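Batch manifest, entry 17 of 40.
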Amino acid sequence: MRCVILPQAVRNILPQIGNNLIINIKDTSVLNVISVTELYFASKSAAGVYYKYFEIFFITCIIYFIMTFTASRLIRWWESKIDGPDAYVLVHDPLADPTGIVAPPITTIPKKGQ
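Output type: structure tokens
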């Protein structure tokens, strides 16, 4: 189970886990409603003290962007590691073909002048 099923399951659920991670990063600003000190709450407090709303919330936007961009790149890197190598060859075995039809060998058509 650990060597066969789990790697396949992780590969299939990894995009959804990554999406949920990014959504949770973005939804931390909702904690402001229940008075939890977090990035948005601290930004709102600093903007109220210094009256520089645009600058402070722009920095907050950049911080959220860096966190979500980093998380998405890490998930994408992890997915590429799980995918395996890009260069592999599929072998066609005519005896294993369930239709029983054997394809003729591929021939090349010579160009004019050859």
